[in-house]
User: Fold these one by one.
Assistant:
Number 1:
Amino acid sequence: MLRRLSLSMLATLVYACQGEPAPLKAPTAATPAAESSGAGLSCERLLPKEVRDRFMPGTELREASLAARTVMCTASKGGGQMVANVQADCRATTTLAYWQAHAHELTRTHPAYKDLPGLGRAALGTDKELELYDDDTDCLVTVADYEGRPVLELAREVARVLAPGLLPPPEKGKLTLACDRLLPQALRDQLFAGARLTASSLMPDTMKCKLEWDDRPPETVSYNCVRPYPAAFIKEMKAQYDRNKTPADEVTIGSGGVYTAISGAQSVAFVDPELGCLVTLTRMKGDKAAAVETARKVAGAFGAEAAR
């Protein structure tokens, strides 16, 4: 039985730009759904009264949010006994590429999960718990019933009300960090042919795009836009490498870049001149010239996406 928060939100496929996996913070408190404004992505909109009366009668619905553009709706009976849970994760990182990587992991860790046609773009699960991806809104939805009732019809009702107008608009003037846009298919075919793309993000304004093959080590491109990094930051990085007696070379990318090779691992970091984002390419094969040229093409794609 699914007694957990959504894999997309808490069981976490996510990493910081160069960090270890860690879950997002859980909500500090839940709000009765009746007290919600009902506007935007809310339990009142996802689960209107007629749906609740049909699928979870006699329960209290409470609402919580782990991050912007997410909502968690928990139906409970007296004494706090959890009956059902519906969650929607509609953050900018929840793209088709994210779903494909997430679905691959689900089928590996949940052998009982099967394809469930007719739900959104794609869905996996059983008749008691499931996850679906809605490509009209780029939302990942989790539906679970803890009393053994089938959830397929409830999931269809939730999918039916999902629409782009349900979501708050993205913040103006801000770049959406999504791997399948930062590294579009044509560029991946050129630089990372045959690789599987996994997108992950531990905190807002960061993204880690992992490229994996079956017969060679993975490569990653990490984006850190938490704050604008000045061009001088690369010189500070180079100075730190020098103090640590780590071989490093400055290279011409963006506002400045630095190349290092430590124990066979190559890294090229640079600062985007327009947004001040720190971008880092790491790989285990090839020479310096190839790594720098790959980073330059990644920088070009980033600049094009930032200008959209």
Number 2:
Amino acid sequence: MSITQKEYQDKLEIGLNRVSDVQFKTDANTTLLERFNSGSFMKNFQHILDSQTGTISADVAPFVSQVWPLIEGWYPMFPLKDLISVQPLEQPLGYIMFSKLVTANTASPTKAGDIVETPNGSRVIKGTYPTGEIIGEVIEDIQSEDNTFKALLGFYPLSVGITNGDLNKIKIVINDHIYVPLTIIGNTLSLTLFGGTSASGVELDIATGLITIPASVEASVTRINASYVRVLEYATKENLPKVKEFITNIPIEAKPRALSHEWTVYAEYLKKTQFNRDIAKDNMERMFNLLYQYQTRYILDELYEYATGNGSVEYALTIPTGTVAVDNYVQKIKEQLSDVSAIVEKANGRVEGNRLVVGRKFKGILESLDSHNFQMDDSKDMGYNNPRYLGKFGKYLTFYDPSLPVDKAFMLYKGNEMYESPYILAEYMPVTPTKLVPDGINMTETFCSMEAYKYTNPDGVVKIKLV
């Protein structure tokens, strides 16, 4: 669109007045742009404008270039703190200390070393351990003497109970034959085959725990399974039900990270004059955003690549096909996700799986649902094809990762405590820019940081494949 000569002259007059009002700066603290704005430069510019005014025709304005907005990439802020544990780190090397309790000895079904209390991992709790009840004890040390097989229980004496209640819990399994109490005389307990009414010849001494089996009853004996109740009052220091505390130190070390940025003085001048952009501030914001994207990408890649949940086997999540009502469709998907959630909970011992990171196929499914079934994020923070928060699907905060294989996803957990996450990001040195370094027409600034990345519980992350 052309402008008249008078309109051009008016614009030119305003421009010349601004040139005359320029305060030229030579102070060492001025910006690079301000140092460029020397008096001679501006005078030459004014001289050029003056020479152009005499060549303007009466009805055609001179060519005035049109400046479109400067286009740059921008980044939606991926909410890392909602996905993993993000913590400050006061020293470059720190430790995460986990205290756990384990059983000190074996009393079937409890085994020595079973973890019964831990802040971050699965637990094995057998309710019979502190009661003295023994279930399914395996006895393999069997002696043969005078046509009789002999074996000792792991604990003795045995309890029969005031009303013989504990007596009824005695069960001896020999070669798949089940023997139960029949009669007791003194310390000798006569056993019969399950369902039988006559003595089998197999006997158990409740005071010493000795089992005797005539060869005429069992021709060979290689293994015995025994269930009974021990008398805890006679337990020794070595075999008393006991737990031990173990403290595990997990080192977490902050490592350097750097990204250098280079631009020309021409770019700086162009941005300032055409767009009134402060390049120092502009560059810092862009580098902070870019470094955050690098950080997000690194963590998402590690979470998926090194996940070992569900025995490192992908969970096959079946997407309903055919004509299915929406609510039934959603219910079937949630039922399977609930199963995955339980696997995640068992692996960490504290929190159900409540975070989903999905690929393109799962994203499409979720976004096709109505707002009742999927609460989509309405921030419109889309950016380019970048990892971002999608919304809430039931109890699951859901994130989209375009770098995941199309039909893949993974589930993890996040609680209120710093250790209630399978992955910890610890920030030691925040992103810090160096001083500008000139090199010819180029300017360079490097952005440095130190942080620690720790995958504390890969078993708490389960890979999912849509089928």
